[in-house]
Write a structure and sequence with these properties.
alpha+beta, endopeptidase fold (from Nostoc punctiforme), 5 helices, 23% strand, elongated, disordered N terminus, signal, Papain-like_cys_pep_sf, protease
Length: 226
């Protein structure tokens, strides 16, 4: 009898194994119906089995956090005349003095025009315009009106009449005259703008349009620099 019992298969072990296998199949079927799921190993006396996660237990992988934008450090560009441009980190462009900002409103290497030089350009642009007493542009001029209008285009207000123009600014000699200086003739009764090389632009009288003339052809009273 004892020998007969030893030869009988272990019914308890077989039942337990079938139960574990059946449970694995059932869990696997539930997981398959619910879609892909994570699996975890389970150790038992009969072996190790992968048990899929039950529906509702699976966790979606967390998305990686979006990278935070990196703040850019301020930097400013400076321009050294006849040398070049340089970038200086740690400061804003508005902290750079105007004369050292790129180009300064003018092409690289070209100095900015003075108010007088701008006034010359404005006056020369009106060569050929008619004379009209009491007019200060933009289509017709008297003598002081042309000077006044030209400086206004350069961003500077000066006296409107020739006598006022003679009394303003700073007096300079003819040998020191530069383009843009205001020239007063005939004791204060006439005005024009010096353009260099012994010439000036003016609006002289009715029937004569704005033109260039030689300074030496007129009676020079004074020169004023604004």
């Amino acid at each position: 009898m004892a020998k007969h019992r030893l030869e009988q298969p272990n019914r308890g072990s077989t039942v337990a194994k079938k139960a574990v296998i059946a449970g694995s199949i059932t869990l696997g079927s539930l997981a398959a119906a619910a879609g892909p799921a994570l699996a975890a190993p389970v150790h038992t006396p009969l072996g190790t089995f992968e048990i899929p996660a039950l529906p509702g237990e699976q966790k979606a992988p967390e998305a990686a956090p979006a990278p935070k934008p990196v703040a850019k450090s301020p930097a400013a560009t400076v321009e050294i005349p006849n040398v070049g441009q340089f970038t200086i980190p740690g400061i804003g462009q508005n902290q750079i003095p105007q004369q050292f900002r790129p180009h300064g409103g003018a092409p690289l290497g070209q100095p900015q025009l003075t108010a007088g030089q701008k006034a010359v350009k404005a006056a020369e642009s009106k060569i050929g315009s008619p004379y009209s007493y009491g007019s200060a542009g933009p289509n017709a001029f008297d003598c002081s009106g042309l000077v006044y209008w030209s400086y206004k285009q350069a961003g500077k207000n000066i006296p409107r009449d020739s006598y006022g123009q003679l009394g303003g600014g700073r007096a300079v000699s003819y040998s020191e005259a530069k383009p843009g200086d205001v020239m007063i003739f005939n004791g204060g009764g006439h005005a024009g703008i010096y353009v260099g090389n012994g010439q000036f632009v003016h609006s002289s009288t009715y029937g004569t349009p704005v033109k260039r003339d030689a300074v030496k052809e007129w009676q020079l009273t004074g020169i004023r620099r604004y």
